[in-house]
Structures are given as structure tokens and as C-alpha cells.
Amino acid sequence: MLRITGGKVYDPANGVNGEVKDVCICDGRIVPEVEGGRTIDATGMVIFPGGVDVHTHVAGAALNFARAMIPEDHRRAEPFVRTQTRRGGIGGATPTTYVTGYLYAGLGYTTVNEAAVPILSARHTHEELADTPIVDKSCCVLMANNEILLDLIEAGELERARHVVAWNIWAAKAYGVKAVNPGGVAAWKWGKDAKGLNEPVPGFSKVTPRQIISALAGIVDELGLPHPVHLHCNNLGAPGNVSTTLETMKILEGNRAHLAHLQYHAYGGDDWPTMRSESVKIAEEFNARKNLTTDAGAVLFGDTVTITADGPWQHLLYKLTGRKWGNIDVENETGCGVVPYTYKEKNLVNAVQWAVGLELLLLIDDPWRIYLTTDHPNGAAFWRYPEIIQLLMDAEFRKEQLKRLTPKALKRIVLPELNREYTLYEIAIITSAGPARALGLTHKGHLGVGADADVAVYNDTSNVAQMFAYPRYVIKGGEVVLEEGEIRKTVEGKGIVVRPAYEQKIEDYIRPLFQQYYTMSFDNYPVEMERIEHPDIRPCKQPTV
Amino acid sequence: MSQTILTLKERPHVPLEAELLSPDVIAPLGHDEVRALPVVLGKRQRRLDEFFDIEGAGSEDLVIRGDAGRVKWIGRGMTRGKITIEGNAGMHLGAYMKGGAISVSGDVSDWVGGEMAGGLIHIGGNAGGQLGAAYRGSLSGMKGGTILVEGSAGIELGMRMRRGVIAVKGPVRDFAGLQMKGGTIVLLGGAEIRTGAWMVRGTIVSLKPIRLMPTFTFACAYNPTFVRLYAKSLQARGFSMPYEDRAGAYRRYTGDTSVPGKGEILVWQPSAVQ
Known about the structure:
The structure holds two protein chains of two kinds.
Chain A: E1 2-5, E2 8-11, E3 16-20, E4 23-26, E5 29-31, E6 38-41, E7 45-49, E8 51-56, H1 61-69, H2 71-76, E9 79-80, E10 89-90, H3 97-107, E11 109-117, H4 122-130, E12 136-142, H5 147-154, H6 158-172, E13 176-180, H7 184-188, H8 209-223, E14 229-232, H9 242-251, E15 257-259, E16 267-268, E17 276-277, H10 279-288, E18 292-295, E19 302-308, H11 311-321, E20 326-330, E21 334-343, H12 348-363, E22 370-371, H13 385-393, H14 395-402, H15 407-410, H16 424-438, E23 455-459, H17 464-469, E24 473-476, E25 479-483, E26 486-487, E27 495-498, H18 506-517, E28 535-538
Parallel strand pairs in A: 1-6, 2-7, 8-11, 11-12, 12-13, 13-14, 14-15, 15-18, 18-22, 27-28
Antiparallel strand pairs in A: 1-4, 2-3, 4-5, 7-23, 9-10, 16-17, 19-21, 20-21, 23-24, 24-25, 25-26
Chain B: E1 4-8, E2 16-17, H1 23-26, H2 31-35, E3 38-41, E4 44-47, E5 52-55, E6 61-65, E7 71-72, E8 82-86, E9 101-104, E10 120-123, E11 143-149, E12 163-168, E13 184-187, E14 203-206, E15 217-222, H3 225-235, E16 248-255, E17 263-270
Parallel strand pairs in B: 1-6, 2-7, 6-8, 8-9, 9-10, 10-11, 11-12, 12-13, 13-14, 14-17
Antiparallel strand pairs in B: 1-5, 2-3, 3-4, 15-16, 16-17
């Protein structure tokens, strides 16, 4: 039993805006009142629901590949020495599994969504997630380049496709569906990309990215998944991709969808030298389309590593940087590319990217529909979130930072004209309440009675970056895991999964295709439930079909 | 000027990590503070005086005596002063150094001068592999400074180096100048195979005929002016490099065209009539 008293509570889901009130915890949940137990005096502090990261890359084959590729980052990264309460490891752009848990908890984050899992490496992903302590974990399975599914969409067999998707989600023990560069990664196996939404995907005769997007968004809604289709649009990172993104938003009309890392999809111009921000157009369209949510995918200057299933884009990035490049083809399902990258202030493209992430966060008027992310580790490592919070809350600081850009870059962005400043209430929305709602996690992201007792307590100071980088207390599932900057207790988080409905006989359809095309036998493919540590199977809404 | 003399009691059985053996660290310290400096043996932290007899207070002039072939990281990141090693030195000697001078009378191990940015390392004996190289994963190796080797050197000499000079009197093993991005390597005793593989820029000068990869193209034979400057500078340190027209000419090969790169390998060809 635990009582947190005297702190200002920011609980946007319940409309609580800085009110001083007690938060009571019993048996891992928020309760109206407790008798006895420990009391934490939070006078002079603010109380937030534990952070929820809607889009991050923290486990699995691609991330591990990146870890192996960047020894130079490990050399300069912060080492974590083993203590009584935590294991050893290393931080940096791709922290080790245990350190990932400590670092997230160290920011007051208690739930993370691993955004891209191929089914073939889902088992590996779950093993790593099991070794990521403290935080609760969910993951999205990659679908938009799965050849079995693409064949069905091409043939117009959407009913069967729905069962295949549902079967795949359960096979991967996933929580949602991710679509990365629909058709583009499949095309990459032919050395090509899918740039036009209405042109057939190379390697197929008819199916177009538009059809894939529309089919997946529809299927996810029909299955009643708590989280809508999680879409990484086509033409990521390319100058002029604003038209693709706007067109994609139109395709999604009538369905729910989450657009991942929108920053990378809001560029104008027709080539690198002419690249400019189109965040105004994107935000205008997005503001009007209430069926959509998004996350920023903001960029911070410095060294990092980019990891995405978007193989063709990564090849282009490799050609641009001349640095290391890793590529993986995941049989019939997807692919992946890894390229270490440095975002530089004086580089026009990087400066525009930095500005666009912030512009979208400031121009999209409803904080309930845009969430704080860096597409970790692509835009910057997640442990740099407090730097972004400072940029959002302090317009003066933002103006100072703008001085670091070149005059040419300043002409390509709108950030200097934006004076909006986020309030603590809005920060609580974009870091916790909003993403929890988008993920359909009704017991997360708020401090109402019955919610999971995931709580972050920060100092109430004007030094925002420091305040959010060093929480005073972090409580996960009712346990005080972090106190005065130290991990005090390492609890194990839950594995959040869904079980959508499918006809058992769909296996009779998939099995022979497997035997024909896959290197792995069908029976070894699905991840067993026993692999998920502390599973939490969330309900689907009543299927609409 | 005062000196700090450290005499190794015996060659350690496992490597001793002693990155604090640097003038930057030792100069301001008193005798007792120097003795108490932490070093790491295996996974245990120990005191410096458990391994060395120490004479004098801290100074900018360190003398290390004995077979320090298992003492790693001497002079790491140093910016000034001088280290004289009377004996051998272990891995990572002078890694990341920015200034000052290190001289070793004996042999040194691998990764000496790794990613150094300035200063001078003079090796009286033979050097191991990855001399002046980039550590694994890094974009650039040596970024400045000079490394002189009286004896031979191992593989991947100057790997990814970007600036600075490495000169070796004895033979050098495979992959000298691997992925080189700039700077100059002078091979007085030639090299084994795959010299300059994947080099993008920079100059490798060989005074002995070497086996060139097929991805290097012959350009011309000449005596470039800059060679004369290097020759005069190196001559003062006892490394002699011919440069006069009557003695011969350098055959210039460009490559590595497989990258494609704009590097050059200059191979000295003495004139037939002397």
C-alpha cells in the first residue's frame, strides 16, 4: 500500500490539471483510499501517469543487428555497472535489453510498444522483451509486405486475408499490425521500391500500395484490434513526399489509423538541395481527419543509428552517407536495413528534419492525436525525450536553438514563426494519456481508480529538461522502482498481446504455402504462449464482420 | 627538469591497464599520489606502486623501464610532455593522443597510436598490427601526428587514417593503408599484399617494389614536390627517402578503383644509370 501526498497531479484522461491531491495505490492499482502503508511526500513535485511510448525499436533481430554494427557507439556510451538491484549493460543509441528497461524507467516511462516485428523473428523479439525489465511491452507485427497476404489482396480475397492477418497476429503474439512502406519492401527484393500509391508493386501484377493500405486498415478495424493499423507511409524521408502522405490520409478515410513518425513524411521540394518543411499542409489535413493519430518521430542533432524495415530507403541512405549499411531480407515477410547516421545542425536536410518534428508537435492542435517519439533510435535515442520536452515548453529556448541553423535552412521551415508552448498538462497527454488511448490500453496512461499503478513523480521546476530526465520517484505496478535517481527494485513487466478471432481452418490454407516457400516448418513458426513472460491478453472489440 | 621514473618490478602475468600513465595525469601529482594511482589488473583495481618502483614526484617527463609488453594504454589521450619507455610497450600505446612525444626502445604490440590526433610516437623495435588505425567501427583512424618505426610493422597499418604520417623502415605486412582516407604512409622496407585496399584518398610511398592490386592504375613516373618536403623532414629523424631526379622516379598508381578511390601509391624506381 502506498500513498503519494502533496503533489500536483496531472491526469488528463480524468481532466485533472495540476490539482493537489493524494494518489493511493493498493495491489498494483490506483484505489480511492488506503489505510496505512508507506507515504511519499511529494510536496513541490508533479505527478504524472507513467509514460507510454507508442513507437520505439527496442528488441528483435534488426535491433540486435544494429547493436553488432556499431561498436564505436558502445565505446562512447554510458556503461551501466552491475549493482545490487540491476544488471550490467551499456546505454547509447541501442542500449542492451536490461539497460533499455532501466533507462525507460529512469525517464518515468512504464509501457513501450516495439513497433516492427517480423513473425519469423518474433520469438527472438519476445526473448529480448522478456529481458527488458520494469516496463510493460507490446509489439506490432509487420504485414504490408507479407507475400502470402499480398497475393490474397491481389486476388481480392479480403475475407481470407482477414483470417490470415488474425492468425499471424496470434502466431507472433503481437498486439497490433504494422505496415512499413506497403509494397516497397517486397519490391526491394527485386531491387525496386513502391513510390507511387497507384502503381502495381514490382513482383506482382496488379496489387498497389493503395490496396494494401486500405485492406490492412479495414482488416484491423474489422478484427476490432485495440490499436489501429500502425502505418509507416511510402516514400519515407524523400523530398516531396508530402503528396504521398496526404494521399495516404485520404485512403484511410473511414478507418482508424496511426501514422508512425510523421516527421519523416512531411517534406516538400523535389530533391535534397530544394527540400523544405511541409508541416503546415500536413498538420492542416491531419487536424481535419479525426480518424487518425500520429507520433512525431522527432529528430535531435547528434549520432545515432537508423533501423527500419524499409530496406530500399536504407540503401539510399547508405548511398548518401557512404557509411556502413546492413540489409536483411526476411524471407516472404519483410526486410530491414541498418545505417549509422549523424544529424548535423549545419546540414540543410537534417536542419529541416529537426524543425519538422517540432513543427508538427506545435501545429497539430489536438495533443490527444500526436505523441512524443523519436522513432527510437532513428531520430535520436529515447533517453533524449526530455530535450524535446524542453523545446516544446519553452519558446525562448527554441529561438536560441534556431540560431544554430544556417540562414538557408531557416528559409525552409516555419518553426521560427511558432510561439506555442506546451503546458505540463499537454506534456502528460503526449507522453502518456494520448499514446495509451491510441494503443487502446484503457488501464494505462491515467490515474483514475482501477488503473495500473504506473506513476512518475517529477520535481516541479522551471528546468524542464532536468526535471523530466531525473524523476524523483517512479512507481510501476504499485512498486517503487526508482527513487532519488537510483533503480531500487527491478520488477518484471507484462507482455501485452491480443487474440483476434480467426477460423481454425485458415491453417489448412497457410500450411501448404509454408511448406512450399518458407525455410521454417509451419509447426515451428508460431510463438508459444509460454514464451511470453507475464502475459496480459487484451480483449478485441466485437469484430465488425 | 625533473623526471618521474617508473621501473616495472616484473612482467605481469595478465595485461595491466594503465591509462593513467600519461604526463597530463601525472604532472601535477606528488610522489605518494603517483604511487597510489589506480591501475586495473584483470578485473581488479590495484595501486600503481604494486607493479612499479617509482622515483620522483609527478612530472611531464615520464621514464618507464622494464618489459612493459603487457602494460596497456600507456599515454592514452596525452596532450603534452614526454614518455620514454626503455623496453617494450603493450597494446594501445598512445591511443587517442593529441600531443607530446612517446619513444620506445623495444617492440610494441597492436593498436599503437589508435585514432591519435597529434604528437609523435617513435618505436625503436617492431610494431604490431593496426598501427595508427581506427578502432573497430570508427570512421577514421589516425587524424594527425607522426609515427616512426625503426623495425617492422604488422597488418592493417594506418587503417582508415585521415591525416598524419606513418614511416616504417622494416617490412610491413598485409593491408597497409586499408580504407585510407588521407595522410601519408612511407614504406622504406616495402609491404606484403593488398597495400592500399579500398583506399579513398591519401598517399602510400614505397621505396621497394610491391605487389599491387589489379584495381590500381598506372598514371605516370615523376618526382612530386611534396615528396621532397617529406624527405627533408624525415631525413632529420634518420629515415632517408630519395627524391632527386638523377636518382630515379616514383611510379604513381591511382586507386583503389573498386571503391572508387582517388588515393595514390608511389613506388620508387631507381634510374638505370647512377
